[in-house]
Amino acid sequence: MAPLLDRCRCSAGFSSDRSRSNETEIRTVIEDWAKAVREVDMGGILAHHTEDILMFDVPPPLQWKGIEAYRKTWDLFFNYSDGGEGSFDLHSYPLESE
Prior knowledge:
Elements: H1 2-8, H2 16-38, H3 42-46, E1 54-56, E2 63-65, H4 67-80
């Protein structure tokens, strides 16, 4: 997701319309990602991540490097979840632009 986030950063010179547009674009990516998790769609889960992703997680190991390692975290997740409604809902993720 870093490339999208880099592309959507705002500076003080941008209008609030631009900020709202950026927020909408970011929220769409996040919602599409969550939907992919619920649908057990690995392609959708990985779609906005780069090959050199560095992810930090709660269960050990606490750090995962690379897209293949990140994919394996989802294999583990899906060992305990069949996906579907309610399996991966995002309730709050405040966004701000500068």
